[in-house]
């Protein structure tokens, strides 16, 4: 075996190992987040808005049946801002705090708003 051949073999083995390690690493660390495509906001069972993720830090105003909720977005994290100016009677949506991956959802019954992640084959398969 020539020295050049040995280098090529070593290179191939190195590439195989590193691609396996990267694959393994991404699955462990970013597993759920890698598959999230967007966050969906439903109002009265209709899609009100769909925002691609990850999102920059921003706020979105949602008009519900009871009042206006302020949604905070930061990367893959989502919450209903506890300082939303309009009163939510049960405050369950606000007290829930940040959600960061499926299947976590935020539901505001008084406002008839549902917030959930879209992404991943199994979730898409269920919703259609
Ligand atoms: Zn609420």
From TrEMBL:
InterPro entries: NusG_2_sf
Domain of life: Bacteria
Transmembrane domains' residue ranges: 6-26
Assigned keywords, A-Z: Membrane, Transmembrane, Transmembrane helix
Xref: Gene3D superfamilies: N-utilization substance G protein NusG, insert domain
Pfam families: NusG_II (PF07009)
Keyword Transmembrane: yes
Protein name: NusG domain-containing protein
Gene source species: Psychracetigena formicireducens
């Amino acid at each position: 075996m020539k020295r050049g051949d040995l280098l090529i073999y070593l290179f191939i083995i190195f590439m195989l190992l590193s691609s396996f390690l990267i694959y393994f690493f991404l699955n462990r660390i970013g597993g759920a987040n890698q598959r999230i495509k967007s966050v969906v906001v439903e109002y009265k069972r209709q899609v009100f808005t769909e925002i691609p993720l990850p999102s920059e830090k921003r706020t979105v105003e949602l008009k519900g049946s009871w009042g206006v909720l302020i949604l905070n977005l930061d990367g893959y994290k989502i919450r209903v801002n506890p300082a939303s100016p309009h009163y939510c009677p049960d405050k369950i949506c606000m007290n829930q705090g940040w959600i960061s991956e499926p299947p976590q959802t935020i539901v505001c019954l008084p406002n008839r708003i549902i917030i959930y992640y879209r992404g991943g084959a199994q979730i898409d398969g269920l919703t259609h």
